[in-house]
């Protein structure tokens, strides 16, 4: 449909196509032009062929030399002359929508010459000027409305050294075997779990009626499991250390896995769940998934019938499992033999003054039931001491990136397992790791924000996100989300709230085909799709479409481009996996580092469910 | 003679209040209802006996013998005469004329709408052929009432004969002129007339007075002259009856039909319906709506159209493109139902602005593009679409819908096919006229510009407070401020 002068300016480099019949002799105005936003649809429908089409800036003001019908691309032979690219007239950029002519909102030049402050205003409305009367020469900084370039930070502070504000050291203990025994202990590389611990786990939770403990070694990957509710690292803080500082001990080669149903055998999270043969339903080595070869300590929790879709049910399953995990943590804490430490790594949060300041906003599920997250437990990915973000009202909580990597989130997720972030995901969060280690940016923190059920609450929390970013005075922000659909409403709103404050922002979500965004706004120009699945769908394979290293580097590069004044090419209308492939190639060409893409579900044996549902 | 049903609401405003009761004898021209609020007097269009007074109408049993004369109206001034006559806009809007003309145009324009824009109607042209002189005198009376210096008759260039007659009738009066219009729909829309003649595009909420003009229908002008010269109340209407009639589809024009005559009587006078038919339309193909044989005509009725049976879409999924130029959504749904289509998508033209419950086009006859709407229809799963658009928009729809596999039907198809005219599809006529005939002055096509108030000079205030000099400038251009400091 016809466009306004403002839209024409935004799309000045897009093809000029007549929206309606225009007769020869008429001067081409924005109102004669079709909105470039629908060109993809038009081209797809065969209605439009843009070959040889001039740009909008080249035709505005030119006279049409032959009568053309609607949807005619304007070509060089149809206009009297091709308009020269005009110099960037500051005029059009700031024009308010209601302005009848493309006039500048206000253009001011205010040099101080001699003893006189001279202000010239070309044209403007509602101008307020305040000048202190005692103002006595020297520098003329009182001339307010001249937009000061905000980019001076870099040069000014370039000399300030980077500073480590916080660090966590992980000590890794290898486990090669998990056995049952009379007490829970770690003996060399063998982990013993006390026999009968299941009863205590059941007794700890009123809603838990049964708990089965299975030790899944690689030879049992081909067995059936109920839906996987969580994958957790087994880690404990050393001594009095708190999450986000000091030393954390972690077991390698083994993870906790929570699964379960209700009394009636209904999956916790029925309707998009990952029950089935384990090796057919786990995308190995995703940040949030088990690595191939690891041993799973798998609980199969049965909860009171009908509580699977309410808040207390899934939480009870997690809490009961944590009774077992906690006993392992205690055993881990007791280890005194440092020779068992196979590897030590340190995560430092380095602040880099003078570099572009960025923040990561992680939208986490907060609708209730299994869509909850326990924030800041006493032990990594524990339960004790943590606050569910639903109870916190889903408002933004600022944490250190190092706290994220140290297990400050215990995730309750289940429905839509392919795009949900398990507890282990945060433990190895690729975007946090990548940004933390990038010497070109200054990662100041991670904002966790829940995704509430109710729309009004969604906007309530997104406004807080915007205000938090404003207070942090960041140059750029990432907004990540998990799942798709309902949460995209607040995801989009977070991006809008950040973008409207002039902060560069990149959004990350599973979208592709099935998760295509249903809402949008003008700040959602830089988006990274986390999809890995072949068909662009939620395939119910655990963690398949979650944020990976290859997504993190794309987002990081995209944000850097935007913060440095560059533009990201607009997305294509339809999902096209080649966009990702091209971007990965571009980045790898520039950095000189090859990027190996992770495999997707096609590398797994095909489950019966997947065969029936998705092929 | 028969029963005349005279409706109490024949105009914009509230229904009139009856001033007669059942059993009263009335003469042709007797005042039978007065306005309650905005409205216009209603007079008996026949002599006879009031048979009944209902909430909506007065029924008069007409005498067998009808007089030629009528009860005269009275008034001191011309405007009072128009008010007494119960004159309303006869183009269809029905706005009380005396209210509309009670304006001082300070030398502005009376724009006479003789576009007769709805296809197939012919009574306006017949009026010009038979009553040009009286019509022209009517223009002069109205110019005087409104203090207008110019009278312009807007008429389509294709009516060469009528244009020639009018040129003859206005000869020697340099205040009067003719503006020729291209043969497009719509040209008679009030703001389209203003734009075409004066080059000013009004907002849908603005009245022509914003451009120092009054737009008035050509038949209203004639009836004004009758009220002023003959003291004749508005009791008759010129009507075109056309369609699937015995004797052929050519137009039958009936001049001075008494208000209250039924649609059925007029169709009979035109020969009667010829066999199977689709619907009877009261009004024109674009803005009229379906009616019944016993419906009485009013002061605003223009056309009665009997159409051929509708095309049967056999339950196909249909999209409706509603715009201000054609039928409203109800009318479009009515047509879709009669065509046996299942409406699954309704789109509204981008330019159709809702003003006081009715749709008005922001720039009548100049298309804002329809490709997006057609894509929406396709996405919604439509197979066929029914559109009510103007010539230009219809042409745009044709630029995309057929390529998308959407079969296009226009709401006027069944009318135009009945009378053997080409249906609305592609546009072949230019929006601009090649060359105006020499005798028609003021033939310009200025680029429309928005009516806009004069820009004020720079308005500013300067105050000193708390040691601060505060300058506030509301609006201005090329402002220089110099401020010495020491």
From TrEMBL, chain A:
Recorded source organism is Lactonifactor longoviformis DSM 17459
Identify the InterPro entries for this entry.
D_pro_red_PrdA, Gly_reductase_pB_sua/b
Q: Which GO terms describe its molecular function?
A: D-proline reductase activity
Name of this chain's protein: D-proline reductase (Dithiol) PrdA
Matches recorded under Pfam families: Gly_reductase
Q: Where are the compositionally biased (Low complexity) regions?
A: 91-100
**Per the record, which residues fall in region Disordered?**
85-105
Automatic annotation (TrEMBL), chain B:
Q: Which superkingdom heads the taxonomic lineage of this protein's source?
A: Bacteria
GO cellular component terms, alphabetically, are:
membrane
Basic and acidic residues: which segments have biased composition? Answer: 446-457
Task: Write out the entry's keywords from A to Z.
Answer: 4Fe-4S, Electron transport, Iron, Iron-sulfur, Metal-binding, Repeat, Transport
Query: Molecular function (GO) terms listed?
Result: 4 iron, 4 sulfur cluster binding; electron transfer activity; metal ion binding
- Record-linked Gene3D superfamilies: NADH-ubiquinone oxidoreductase 51kDa subunit (3.40.50.11540)
* Residues of the NADH-ubiquinone oxidoreductase 51kDa subunit FMN-binding domain: 83-222
Q: Where is the RnfC Barrel sandwich hybrid domain?
A: 6-63
Q: Where is this region: Disordered?
A: 433-457
A Pfam family this chain is assigned to: RnfC_N
Chain ranges passing through the membrane: none
Protein name stated in the entry = Proline reductase-associated electron transfer protein PrdC
């Amino acid at each position: 449909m016809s466009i306004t002068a403002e839209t024409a300016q935004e799309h000045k480099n897009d093809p000029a196509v007549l929206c309606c019949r225009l007769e020869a002799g008429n001067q081409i105005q924005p109102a004669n032009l079709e909105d470039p936003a629908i060109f993809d649809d038009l081209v797809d429908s065969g209605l439009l062929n843009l070959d040889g089409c001039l740009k909008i800036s080249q035709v505005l003001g030119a006279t049409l030399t032959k009568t053309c019908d609607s949807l005619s691309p304007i070509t060089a032979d149809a206009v009297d002359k091709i308009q020269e690219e005009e110099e960037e007239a500051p005029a059009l950029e700031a024009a308010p929508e209601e302005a009848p002519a493309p006039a500048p909102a206000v253009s001011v030049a205010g040099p101080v010459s001699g003893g006189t402050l001279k202000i010239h205003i070309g044209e403007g409305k509602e101008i307020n000027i305040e000048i202190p009367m005692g103002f006595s020469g020297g520098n003329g900084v009182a001339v307010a409305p001249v937009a000061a370039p905000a980019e001076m930070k870099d040069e000014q502070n370039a000399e300030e050294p980077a500073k480590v504000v916080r660090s966590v050291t992980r000590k890794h203990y290898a486990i090669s075997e998990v056995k049952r025994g009379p007490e829970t202990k770690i003996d060399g590389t063998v982990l013993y779990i006390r026999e009968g611990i299941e009863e205590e786990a059941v007794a700890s939770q009123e809603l838990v009626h049964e708990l089965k403990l299975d030790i899944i070694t690689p030879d049992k990957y081909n067995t059936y499991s109920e839906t996987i509710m969580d994958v957790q690292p087994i880690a404990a803080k050393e001594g009095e250390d708190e999450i986000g500082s000091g030393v954390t001990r972690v077991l390698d080669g083994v993870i906790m896995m929570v699964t379960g149903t209700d009394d009636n055998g209904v999956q916790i999270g029925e309707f998009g769940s990952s029950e089935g043969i384990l090796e057919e339903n786990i995308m190995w080595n995703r940040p949030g998934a088990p690595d191939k070869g690891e041993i799973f300590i798998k609980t199969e929790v049965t909860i009171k019938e009908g509580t699977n879709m309410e808040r207390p049910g899934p939480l009870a399953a997690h809490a009961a499992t944590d009774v077992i995990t906690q006993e392992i943590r205690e055993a881990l804490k007791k280890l005194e033999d440092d020779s068992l430490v196979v590897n030590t790594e340190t995560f430092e949060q380095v602040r880099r003054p003078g570099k572009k300041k960025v923040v990561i906003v992680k939208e986490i599920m907060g609708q209730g039931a299994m869509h909850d997250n326990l924030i800041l437990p006493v032990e990594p990915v524990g339960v004790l001491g943590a606050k569910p973000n639903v109870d916190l009202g889903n408002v933004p909580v600022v944490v250190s990136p190092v706290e994220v990597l140290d297990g400050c989130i215990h995730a309750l997720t289940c429905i839509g397992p392919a795009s949900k972030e398990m507890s282990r995901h945060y433990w190895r969060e690729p975007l946090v790791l990548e940004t933390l280690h990038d010497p070109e940016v200054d990662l100041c923190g991670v904002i966790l924000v829940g995704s509430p059920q109710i729309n009004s609450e969604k906007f309530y929390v997104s406004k807080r996100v915007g205000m938090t970013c404003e207070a942090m005075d960041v140059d750029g922000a990432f907004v990540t989300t998990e799942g798709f659909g309902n949460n995209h409403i607040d995801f989009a709103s977070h991006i809008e709230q950040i973008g409207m404050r002039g902060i560069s922002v990149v959004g990350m979500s599973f979208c592709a085909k099935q998760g295509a965004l249903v809402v949008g706004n003008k700040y959602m120009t830089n988006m990274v799709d986390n999809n890995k699945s072949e068909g662009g769908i939620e395939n119910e394979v655990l963690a398949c479409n979650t944020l990976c290293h290859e997504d993190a580097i794309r987002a990081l590069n995209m944000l850097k481009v935007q913060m440095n004044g560059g533009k990201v090419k607009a997305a294509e209308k339809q999902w096209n996996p080649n966009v990702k492939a091209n971007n990965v190639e571009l980045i790898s060409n520039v950095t000189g580092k090859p990027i190996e893409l992770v495999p997707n579900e096609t590398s797994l044996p095909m489950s019966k469910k997947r065969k029936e549902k998705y092929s | 003679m028969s029963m005349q049903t005279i409706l109490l609401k024949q105009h914009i405003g509230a229904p009139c209040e009856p001033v007669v009761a059942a059993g009263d004898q009335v003469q042709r021209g007797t005042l039978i209802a007065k306005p309650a609020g905005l409205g216009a007097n209603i007079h008996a269009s026949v002599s006879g006996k009031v048979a009944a007074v209902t909430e909506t109408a007065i029924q008069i049993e007409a005498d067998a013998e009808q007089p030629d004369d009528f009860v005269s109206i009275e008034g001191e001034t011309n405007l009072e005469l128009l008010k007494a006559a119960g004159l309303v806009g006869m183009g269809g809007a029905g706005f009380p004329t005396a209210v509309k003309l009670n304006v001082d145009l300070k030398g502005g324009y009376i724009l006479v709408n003789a576009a007769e824009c709805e296809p197939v109607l012919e009574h306006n042209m017949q009026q010009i052929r038979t009553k040009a002189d009286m019509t022209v005198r009517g223009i002069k009376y109205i110019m005087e009432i409104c203090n207008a210096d110019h009278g312009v008759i807007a008429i389509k260039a294709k009516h060469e004969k009528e244009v020639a007659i009018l040129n003859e009738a206005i000869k020697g009066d340099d205040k009067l002129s003719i503006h020729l219009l291209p043969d497009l729909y719509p040209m008679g829309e009030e703001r389209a007339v203003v734009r075409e003649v004066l080059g000013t595009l009004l907002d849908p909420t603005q009245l022509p007075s914003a451009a120092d003009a009054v737009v008035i229908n050509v038949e209203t002008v004639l009836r004004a002259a009758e009220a002023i010269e003959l003291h004749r109340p508005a009791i008759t209407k010129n009507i075109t009856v056309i369609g699937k009639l015995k004797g052929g589809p050519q137009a039958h024009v009936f001049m001075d039909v008494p208000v209250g005559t039924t649609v059925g009587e007029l169709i009979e006078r035109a020969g009667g319906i010829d066999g199977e038919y689709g619907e009877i339309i009261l009004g024109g193909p674009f803005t009229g709506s379906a009616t019944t044989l016993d419906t009485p005509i009013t002061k605003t009725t223009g056309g009665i159209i009997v159409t051929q049976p509708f095309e049967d879409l056999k339950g196909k999924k249909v999209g409706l493109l509603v715009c201000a130029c054609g039928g409203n959504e109800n009318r479009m749904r009515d047509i879709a139902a009669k065509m046996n289509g299942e409406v699954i998508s309704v789109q509204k033209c981008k330019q159709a602005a809702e003003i006081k419950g009715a749709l008005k086009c922001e720039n009548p006859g100049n298309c804002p593009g329809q490709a997006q709407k057609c894509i929406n229809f396709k996405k919604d799963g439509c197979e066929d679409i029914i559109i009510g658009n103007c010539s230009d928009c219809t042409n745009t729809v044709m630029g995309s819908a057929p390529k998308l596999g959407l079969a296009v039907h226009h709401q006027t198809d069944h009318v135009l096919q009945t009378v053997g005219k080409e249906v609305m599809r592609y546009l072949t006529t230019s929006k601009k006229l090649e060359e105006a005939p020499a005798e028609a002055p003021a033939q310009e096509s200025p680029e429309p510009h928005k009516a806009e108030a004069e820009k004020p000079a720079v308005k500013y205030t300067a105050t000193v407070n708390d040691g601060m000099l505060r300058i506030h400038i509301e609006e201005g251009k090329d402002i220089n401020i110099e401020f010495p400091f020491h």
